[in-house]
Each structure stands twice: as structure tokens, then as C-alpha cells.
Amino acid sequence: MKNVLLAALLLLVLAVPARAQPGVPAIRSLAQLQDSLRHVMAREHIPGMMLTLVRHDSVLFEGGLGLADLAAQRPVTAHTCFRIGSVTKTFVAAGLMQLIEQGKLRLNDEVRKIAPEIPIDNPWEATDPVRVVHLLEHTAGFDDMRLNHIYNATPTDPCGAAGLAVFRGELRCRWRPGERMSYSNPGYLAAGYLLEKFSGQPYEHYLTAHLLRPLAMPDATPALRISPGVGVSRGYKYTNGHYQAVPLLPIYVGPAGSMSASAADMTQWVQFFLHDGRTPNGTALLQPASLRELETAHSPLSARAGLPAGYGPANYSLGQKGKALFRGHSGGIDGFITAFGYHRELGVGYAFSNNGGGRAPKLEQLVQAFLLQRLPALVPAPRVPLDAAAVAPYLGHYRNAARNELFGFADYLLGGVNLRQQGDFCLANRLSARPIPCCPPARSPFACPPTGRPPLCSPKTKAGSGC
């Protein structure tokens, strides 16, 4: 019994969210930014980093910091490829939007009708079928990858129906599709299969021909198998005072995370969004309306209730509190952490990847702060009194939906969130954190606007993100 209690306590401690990073200093020049990034890299044991900083009509920086290969002492350059993990999903979603523009399928198509061979187990199929949009927004209710389904140690790569068969167990709806968002890489394997079926090409061939080459991305590749070499960064983990190189193993869920790209590639990908879906020579790869579809969360209950924040088709908000919201995606794969973001209205964007394998949020904070240094803080919105009667039915305890059933017991022990009213605030009390106001005070630039709807708050809303 004592051992069980100790294990439970360890789970609680390990699951406590990291404290917020200290304030970001004012950075007025690229040289200051690079110095600050190098300082964080040294502190977080990150050997190298690729980086691009973009404006609508220019490139502020495109290159690298530190080393791509410690043994060879090879520096990161603008053409050093990093594994960018789940940023791959943004390419798959854009590819499917191209097919949707061509009328080959629709976001609301029922997957069972257009691809009955995908082995989805949905107990609610008659009333709540899995739709294409559910795959792209992680709202089908699928489990995430089981541990033995992450890296492929076999000499062959299962493709098409064989790849889907690997994840038959994960492709089961654990709740009604469209109720809630729970990140599931196998859902993007199914999305990649749809890309292949309706284009008539393997997903890696389609992405190369219809996105990478038209955008003049010189180094990017969605290949599952890559080898260490002059143009490829090694990934590392830092343990016991030493760096250990991570093998570049292929993954099973290629459409969810197989892409490798350089800073020069990511410059083009960021500008694709800043240029409303056009190539450098002006050719439209996506229409502006399709970009807005990518930037919109459609399917979960929160989106249908009018909450603006959420995960669209491989696209979500990246906060810079008090100034502006970027959009984009992040990615993590053994040895690499990647992020890209853009702000179409302001005409700025960025992408970076580090080969230390650790999440260092200060890197992204520094990059965003540099790009927004001349932007004034948002004008606070007027404060709106809380409608206690409208909020009352939603107060109470919310249990987290497990991203991965393997760790569901830990989520159960953490107890989820308790939503309660205190004056003009909804407070979300987490077991391991201080209360978070869902509706910030009037001095906040994210104070609840007078929308005419009850200011209902999501129990998972983060501080500063509004109602």
C-alpha cells in the first residue's frame, strides 16, 4: 500500500505544470535576439537551432545558431534539415484543402461513406459519424499512439491499408465524435490516407509535387527514412552531464510527423500563409477562404458554443499576452522540438527548431517579442458583469479526457478541473495549480466582450485567453 501511495504522489508531482517563464526583456536588434537565444540554448542544453524570421515582403533572418552535429562540430546553416514532427500536419491539412477546393471531398463528409476501408470503430456511427473535419481537428475521440506504435524498428514501412491496420486499436471513438478535442496522431494517419485516396498519389509524393516544389522549398522532404549527413541535423538528449545522439528512426504515422525541413524551407512555408496561400511567383495554391477554414475550429462543442480559440485543421492560436495572437503549430519528435507561427494582419512570422529535444518556451517568447516590439498593447475591452444564472448550470467538476489511455489513470488521479463562481469571475481550480480566472478583470486586454451571449467559460481556458 505504501508503494502505491508513493507512486501516486510521484505522478502528482511530475504532472505539476511548469511555472511561467520570467518576463521577456526588450530586444531591439537581431544581435540582441541571437545573444538571448544562445543564452537560453546554453541553459537548456540545446546544441543547435535553425531559425527564420519573416516579414510579408522580406526575410529578417534565415540561418542557424549552434551545432547540427556535436561530434563533427558542424554548424547549423540555413539549409540544415531538422525533423519538424507535427508541423507535418499543417502540410497534410493544406493538401486536403486543395482537394476540397477541387470538389473531390468536403470537410463534413462522413469518413465511413467516402472511405469505408478505414477501420474506425464508432459506437455512435448512426447518429454521430466521424467526419473529415474530426480527423483534422482531433475531435473523433481516438486514442493516441500506443508506445509500440511510435517508432518503426522493422525494415519496411507499412503504407495505405497496412498502415491503418497497425492503428486499428487506436481508431476507436471513446466518446461521441465532435464533443471534445483530444490530440491523436492516428487520426492524421487516416487523414493522410484520404489525401492518398483522392489524389491517387502517396502522401509524400503529393506534398512534394503540390506544396514543396511550387513553394521552392529546397531541402524539405516528407520521407520516413532519413540518414545522418552533412545536410541533416542530429537530435540529442542531455542526461547525466552528457549529450547523447538520438537515432533518426522512422515513425509509423508518417502524415502526422515525418517532414524534415530547413530554415530556408520554413521561410517559404511561413510566407505561404502571409501571402494568402500564394507561391513566390504569385500562383495561388490555396484560396484565402480555404486559409480561413484552416484557421477556424469547426467541430468541438466549444467552437459550436461560440468560443473563438481552438484547434482548427492543424492550425491554432499561439499567444503573446497583451499584444497579438500568432497562428501556427508546434512539433516534437525524439531529439527535436519545432514551432512555426505567423500573423497575417501584421505581416510577420517565424519558424524554429532545436535539436536538444527539450521544450524551451522562452525561445518562442523571445522570437515573438522581437517581431512584435513596435506593436502597442491592445486597448482593454470593457468589463461585462457575469450572468450568474447563465453560468450556474456549468459549474462543477470536469474530468480530463485522456489523450492516451495508457496514462488515463494519472489523469484520473489529477482530478481534472473544478469550475466555480467567485463574484464576477469563473475560477478554474486545478489540483496542481492556483485558481485561474476564466473571465479576466477589466484591466486585461482580454476582458470579456459584450457579445450578447452568456459569458460561458471553458474549464480548460488558460489565463488571459478570455471567455
How far apart are the termini? 43 Å
Domains, number: 2
| Tertiary shape | globular
User: pLDDT below 50 for ≥5 consecutive residues: which ranges?
Assistant: 1-22, 437-467
Beta-strand percentage range = 15-25%
Helix content: 25-40%
Please tell me the overall pLDDT. 85
Per CATH, the architecture of the largest domain is 3-Layer(aba) Sandwich
- Mind summarizing the main beta sheet? 7 strands, antiparallel
Number of strands: 15
Q: Supply the number of helical segments.
A: 15
- Output the radius of gyration: 22 Å
CATH homologous superfamily descriptor of the largest domain:
DD-peptidase/beta-lactamase superfamily
| CATH structural class of the largest domain | Alpha Beta
Structural class: alpha+beta
Explain briefly what this protein structure is.
It is built from 15 helices and 15 strands. With 467 residues, the chain is α+β, with helices and mostly antiparallel strands. Residues 1-20 form the signal peptide.
